[in-house]
Amino acid sequence: MLIRLNYKSGKAPYLQIVDQVKHAAASGALREGEPLPAIRPLAESLRINRNTVAKAYAELENQGVVETKVGKGCFIAENNTPFKSSVCQEILTEAIDHAIVQAHHLQVSNKDFQQLVTERLKQFENTKH
Amino acid sequence: MLIRLNYKSGKAPYLQIVDQVKHAAASGALREGEPLPAIRPLAESLRINRNTVAKAYAELENQGVVETKVGKGCFIAENNTPFKSSVCQEILTEAIDHAIVQAHHLQVSNKDFQQLVTERLKQFENTKH
Amino acid sequence: MLIRLNYKSGKAPYLQIVDQVKHAAASGALREGEPLPAIRPLAESLRINRNTVAKAYAELENQGVVETKVGKGCFIAENNTPFKSSVCQEILTEAIDHAIVQAHHLQVSNKDFQQLVTERLKQFENTKH
Amino acid sequence: MLIRLNYKSGKAPYLQIVDQVKHAAASGALREGEPLPAIRPLAESLRINRNTVAKAYAELENQGVVETKVGKGCFIAENNTPFKSSVCQEILTEAIDHAIVQAHHLQVSNKDFQQLVTERLKQFENTKH
DNA sequence: GTGGTCTAGACCACA
DNA sequence: GTGGTCTAGACCACG
Q: Fewest C-beta in 10 Å: which of A128, B104, C53, D56?
């Protein structure tokens, strides 16, 4: 699983990790029993302290998203229930609203905004293949 | 000037305010000498403490975006130079891309995504007035 | 009555005024019925806002040290009771302790400290005449 | 290093800490590289919030008196230049003069004043050990 | 009414 | 354990 940090976002790094794993698990991108990256290499590649990764994993275990098997690693929990679609929609709405607020403050019209969305979707389609 | 907080984003409220004002000033939506909302009423409407807004305004003054006159209020700085339009687009693209990535992770189709965007834009229009 | 502000002390100006008047009244330097400086000229000479002086006088009235006669000015209260000697000593002790702490941090020995005290007392005697 | 607060002085506690450390460093009482008390235990012993001490240390770092290493502690800065002895004496004289002025206001005789000084010095010796 | 400051509590990253 | 940051409440100076 690929995890990335946005260092300028101001969001706590451990929360960024939690959210990314949770969303990936909830969407089915990560299946039950699939392993998470080991703490030490992940911390190294993200250039943060191992404690910070450990805290993220602990939080995920608390939330029942993953299971830690000592000496083996961290795995997506067996009874991991994907989000209800309502929750999915809420997460997505949050991201869209943020983009809309940005557009508003940058004085981009609704029409231009929607066109930009269409453009980016196409762009994504192309890079996917 | 319209300022909105995303209470669930995990991003510090004062940083959200800083970004929104900065972008609005940079895009030309706020002109030189234009006043920002007073600290108290804004804090009340966002349901946060006065100091959180004050910190945002202090940071904006530090960055030279804003000039504050004690007893009078906060105003867009004289020498405030708008972003180049390319920078504006970059910022906006980043926000849109983040939403698109979320949609993909949650396995939402492009069509559903665009419909949700349209919905949120409408929602926004309604609450603005 | 002479009032002076220490602008670098970090102590709130209105509190400095309160303390000076209170101490002068308590020591008998100001007698019952004696007038305080008018707000406007005092504020001007101290280069602070009139509200700040007004606040000090209001606090003094609250504490029963002065009486305000509207249109006439502020006067040392009739039943103004000088501090008990224990309170006087407490005030003085505070000032002495502060000097001692300074001496300690500046690595001045007790002996040198006491000599400096004697010196300053003499200096004061001379300027008084 | 010994730090004391005067809780009744009306001077901001964090400024009292700043002054004391600065003077101790300036007089040579604290040498380069010497550690300051850790934030938490000092706050506890002074019975104030951690942040108040933290603010004092941050201010000291700003002024170049101190260098702070996260996770390690706070240390007297390398380039810390002691005050000239004339400046030390000036600071101390100011504190003594203030005490003398108080004594005069409260109509305490020079003799009683000097006795009180001796008393307080003794008191200080006792609590230091 | 305006903005500024100080203290405090909770949380974060790091060793 | 260390220091750093963000939010909040109370108080201050000023118009």
A: A128
Taking alpha carbons only, the member of D8, D14, D98 closest to residue D48 is: D14
Identify the architecture of domain A13-76 in CATH. Orthogonal Bundle (1.10)
Is the separation of the CB atoms in D98 and D104 below 8 Å? no
Q: How confident is the model at residue A83 (pLDDT cuts 50, 70, 90)?
A: low
Query: What pLDDT was estimated at residue A128?
Result: 61
B neighbour chains, 3+ CB pairs within 8 Å: A
Cα distance between residue C64 and residue C62, in whole Å: 5
SS3 A12: coil
d(CA B34, CA B51): 22
With beta carbons under 8 A apart, name residues in chain A contacting B93: 116, 120
Question: In the 8-state DSSP scheme, what is residue C35?
Answer: B
Low-confidence ranges of chain B (pLDDT < 50): none
E strand or H helix that includes residue D20:
helix D13-27
Residues belonging to chain A with any Cβ–Cβ distance to chain B shorter than 8 Å = 9-12, 15, 19, 23-24, 26-29, 83, 88-89, 91-108, 110, 113-114, 116-118, 120-121, 124-125
Q: How far is D73 from chain C (nearest CA, A)?
A: 21
Confidence check: pLDDT of A115 > 90: yes
Q: Which of D2, D100, D121 sits opposite C121 (nearest CB)?
A: D100
CA atoms of A102 and A100, how far apart (whole Å): 5
C74-102: pLDDT as tens digits:
999 887 666 667 777 888 888 899 899 88
The per-residue pLDDT for range D77-126, each reduced to its tens digit, is: 987 777 778 888 888 998 999 899 888 877 788 999 999 999 999 998 88
Q: Report DSSP letters for C99-124, one per residue.
A: HHHHHHHTT--HHHHHHHHHHHHHHH
Ordered by start, the domain boundaries in chain C are 13-76, 85-128
Q: How far out from the chain centre does Cα C98 lie? A: 16
3-class state of residue D69 by DSSP: strand
pLDDT in tens, D29-48: 888 899 999 999 999 999 99
C98: distance to nearest CA of chain D, Å?
7
